[in-house]
Write the structure tokens for this entry.
Amino acid sequence: MLGPFVLAHLHVYKNPEQARQFLEPMANHLTAHGVGSLSEIFDGDAPMTPRGCIAQAWTVAEVLRAWLATES
């Protein structure tokens, strides 16, 4: 649900830099767990513990889609 949230935030506030900040923890996760991938799900509260499988293609795709939307 992070992708739709980021895109909604971008749509409402028209601030790509601020919207992208929600995705920054995902970039950190790329090197911390399943190196080069993202876990299937995360806890909603800090410290956002990863759960499920350690490498999920649709999680990577959704975060990438949201990241690219904040760059245009």
Remarks:
- Helices lie at 2-13, 16-21, 24-29, 57-71.
- DSSP finds four helices and two strands in the chain.
- The mean pLDDT is 90.
